[in-house]
Structures are given as structure tokens and as C-alpha cells.
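To: structure subgroup
Subject: Chain for Friday's discussion

All,

I'm putting the inputs and outputs inline so they're searchable in the archive.
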Amino acid sequence: MKKRVVITGVGAVTPLGNDAFTTWDNIKAGKSGIAESTLIDKEKVDVKIAGEVKDFNPSDFMDKREARRMGRFSQFAVAASKMAMDDAGMKVGKDVSSERIGVWIGSGIGGLGEFEANFKKFAEKGQRRVSPFTIPMFIPDMAAGRVSIELGTKGTVNCSVTACASGTNSIGDAFRVIQNGQADVMVSGGSEACITNMSVAGFSNMTALSKNSDPNSASLPFDKNRDGFVIAEGCGILVLEELDHALSRGATIYAELIGYGATGDAYHITSPAPDGEGAKRSMEEAIKDAGISPDQVDYINAHGTSTFYNDLYETIAIKQLFGEHAYELSVSSTKSMTGHLLGGAGGVEAIFSILAIRDSIMPPTINYETPDEELDLDYVPNVAKEKNLNITLSNSLGFGGHNATIVFKKFVQ
């Protein structure tokens, strides 16, 4: 018998707030965290806006000296993980044995900013000016490693690096660890701090980013005038807990994680497979794993990047899998408000999918003005909708052909 897994804590650092609940309140209100960038050199690149984390002070969550030795993405992960553990009312060694709690946090790029800064020092001033912490500041697994050290967890410590699917794959992989009895608790999600000159230049040159300099109209998921995604940063973390363990300590349960699917496109390094074939199979796998039928899904938090082919193919995949029910459920892209957090997206969007169940509300796709005749689903345009939600689904799709889907259900004992 596979163990049942529930969500007992959430934590986040995002462009819309430095905790999960401020972020969620702004999501429900349809507010945008996208603004003119302060992190990129606007003289060197042709993109001027981003979804940046604002007023984040790492020393609020960790030792100042240790924070200086971490990449920004690791700082986000430590902060969000500590908030999630506090939200779960859990202390390692008291509420869970250190050997029975693990960490699985993904990142698509890791500490690219720290790598760039130290490479510049090396190129201009030589080896002696390069920080001895350069490698542990930028390798993608270090968010998970740092969280494990800070929390004192001694179970599995892992990191899924699957581009923009990293956060969702990490949550799904952590789900399996508990299902299989290898841990009672997992701290899981995704973290990214990718707003750097090099990453913006690279994404821009592959025509993935919006060239719209107006932060109020650049991220346009499912809109006919979409022209690319808006790069963003942040972290979303969940505390996953085996059901009996959660009940035994009287934990508050947000929702149950019931299904996980992961597939590969085997098609192209950046473009999704035609008609979203891989995304369709990922959703199909997750629904089968959950033991439900497609017509039981109430809401999908879409990958919804605001790129031409993602939005088109994800829509086609949903219609092919769900049939007529595709027109009864609702689909929205919260990236219209957060921007695209790359490897951090799956973590924060999982939180939105969980809190949507708790609050009986579907977050909107803002900036939606011009319908595309090929995209004809209910994208919850511009204003959140109230609806009693029993099952929600969250999609993440990554360069390299990675597709990941997780399914949440309203908890019933």
C-alpha cells in the first residue's frame, strides 16, 4: 500500500511578496509583481522588465555570514523552507526524527549571477579575486543542501534539474519518497534567481522573452498578442507529510497530493512537441496515478508562459485529454502576475493550486484582452472566480522536453 501524502506547510519568496500568504492575496486580487528591472544592465540588453523579489533581507532568516556564502537562489530556498516549516508547526528532532525528513528542491539554472560576478573578477583581476565559495554558490543542488544543513534534516537530499519543470518534478519526486515509506516528511519545491545579464541576453536572443517594455501588458498568457515570457525569480516550498504522521501530531492539512506524471517529448531542445503530445501524456499519467477520471478535475494551473507555442500546444493538449470537460473546467496562468520563475515556477504554482482549494477560488489570468481563435478555453480572464474546488492540477514544461504534472485534492480523512 502506498502511503498517503498531505501538504501541511507552505512558504514562498516571490515578486508579489516575501511570504506565501501575501503572495496569494495579491494573486487573488489580480495584482502584478512585474516592474522595471533593477538587476539587469538595460544598456546591454533589450529587455527592461522582470518579476523581481523586492525588499528581501536574507539575514531575517539565516546567519548574515552564511548568507554571504550562498547564492541568491539558495537564500530564497532557506527562507521559504523555514517559513514552510513554521507554517507546518514542525521542528526537526521534536516533531519528526532528523533521519525521517528529507529535502528535494529543484533549480533550473542555480547561481548564474554568482558565476557571472566571479567570472568577471577572474577575467579582470585574476584567480586570487575569485571567491572560494564560487562553486557552492552556483551549483543547482546547493539550495537543497543548504536547506538540509539549516534545518538539520538527515533523510535524502536531492535536486531535480529539469529546466522550467524542476520545481514540479522535485515535488513529484519527493511525493514518491514518502509514498514508498522512505521518509515521513519532505521539504520540497523549486528556487531560482535567474535575472542576470547573461540569462536575459540568452533568452532574448532565442526570442523567448517579451520585448514589450510595459510591465502592465508584457505577460499575456493565452492572449493573441503574446510575444514571449517575462523572466522572474523566487521560490516556493511545500512541506509534504505522510498522512498518519500529520494526523498524529494534529497538523493542519491544506490538501492531499494524489498524483504525479512526468514525460519526455524527445522532440526539440526548446520547442514543445507538436500539439502538446508530451504535456498530454504527463497530465494523463498524473490523473491515472491519482486514481481519478479527467472529468473530476476542476481547475488547471497551466504552465502558460505567454509564448506562442506553449500556450497553443498546452491548450490543444488539454482539449485532447479532457474532451468536452475541457470547456467545463477552468485554466489560468498565474505567470501573468508573477512572470516566469523558471525552476522556481512549479513550487509557487503548486502553492497556488493548493490554496485555490482551501479558499474555493480560481486565480485569474490578468492582461487578457484579445482572444485567440485557437485558444478557446475558460482562462479565468482578469478577475478571480469563486468555485468550490475538489481537484486541481498544476503543469510545468521545460526546455529539453521535460513535462511534469501534479494533482491535488481537497483533504478528506
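Points worth raising on Friday:
The mean pLDDT is 97.
The radius of gyration is 20 Å.

D.
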